[in-house]
Each structure stands twice: as C-alpha cells, then as structure tokens.
Amino acid sequence: MGTNPVNPRTKVSLVFDDGFTQSCLKVADCFEKRGLSATFAVLVEHKTFMPAFHKGEFSLWNTLQARGHIIHPHGFDHTDLTSIPHEHAVSRIDACLEYFSKHLDYFEPASTIYHATYNRTTPELNAYLLTKVRAVRSTGLLGTIGNGMNHDAELERRVLSCAWHGPDHCDEHLLASLVEAERVQPRLFLYMLHGLDEEGWGPIRSQALERALDFIEASPMLEYWNLSSGESIGSD
Length: 236
Ligand SMILES: [Zn+2]
Prior knowledge:
about 35% helix, six-stranded mixed beta sheet, 7 helices, single chain, alpha/beta, binds zinc ion, about 240 residues, globular, TIM Barrel, three-stranded parallel beta sheet
C-alpha cells in the first residue's frame, strides 16, 4: 500500500490512425469482446487524404467514445506539420483542437495526446503543443520509425516514441515488437496501426490483431492500456 510495485508491467498501447470507418467499427468490436477499449487518432478534414477509403465523421467518434473507446487528435488534416511554416502549423494545431473541443463530447485538450501526422514535429512545435496537450506522439523532425519504447525520460518529456510498419501488412512486425517490449520492459510501449485487413497503409489482418491482443493478455510482463487520461504521463 502506497509503494510502487517492484516490477510494474509494461503498458502496451495500440493506436489506430486516420479513422477508416470499416476498420474502426471492427476494431471497436474486437476490443469490446475482450473488455478493452480501443484508441483512435482521427482527422478533422480527411477528404483529400487516401480518398479511396471511407473515413468516419465526429458522429461516429462520439458514438465510439460513448461505447468506451478513446478518441485523440491526429491533426486538422494530414499535412506534414514540418513541411509548412511554423505559424501555419500552429494555426492548424489550434484549428484541430478547437474543432475537437466543439465537436467531440467532453474533449479537453489538456487531457489528450496529439498524434502527429507522419510522427513528425519540430522541437518548436513540440514546445507549443505541450502548452496545450498532455503529450505528443512524434519521432522528431524526420519522423523516423521509432522503437516505441517509452521509459521515464520519454514520459517526463511528454514526447512519445512509437513503432510501426508498412506499407505492407504489419502482422509479424507487431508481434516481434511485443516480444521485444517484453524483453526491454519500458514503462510504455506504443505502436501505431492504421486500418484492418486491406484498409489503409500498413494494415493489420484481423487475425493478427487478435493474436497480438492474446499475446499481451497472456504475458506476465505486459498489460494493455488505452492511453486514457486517468494515468499520468509527465513528472508526477
Ligand atoms: Zn495518418
């Protein structure tokens, strides 16, 4: 009581980006069957981004949120914020958070995580974002693929690394990454996903997602966490 466990489990979070409608619905069902809630990072304006795939609107995000799932911002649109002048990037961040505040029930910027498009941000954008949001998901200026291992330093800095694989299916890469997370035991292992089966970039097959969740649930080292605001990221 009142003391930290000697070996707290590594929290594992999977984030589904871009808001592909069919995938989000299937992912939500899959997580609900296990008593878990899924985390989705979605755009405000998505029409010009991967137009071949249907994406959800805020009515769907409110419905999924009411079912217990977590909805986080992925950007106003899918622009790479490092490719435009800083002031323009700041305007898009502001427009994104403002839209979320107006259209997503109970949304509070200070409780959310901003999942940067292409995982790319400048140090200046991180500094700006961290005055608004709880944490930023970014692997830096180039958005180089991260290892997703977030130790005390990353959590205190509130800039989170994540791992991913694409453009082909990420099934095997996710499973191998979970094995690695079990070995390394960071405080938080974060992995970015997109759509299910054939939807979006670097999709995961439904069966592989089930297998990954089975692996996490069976592991004595890992536990699933939906990135909800109840638990702290930061110095406290
Ligand atoms: Zn995206």
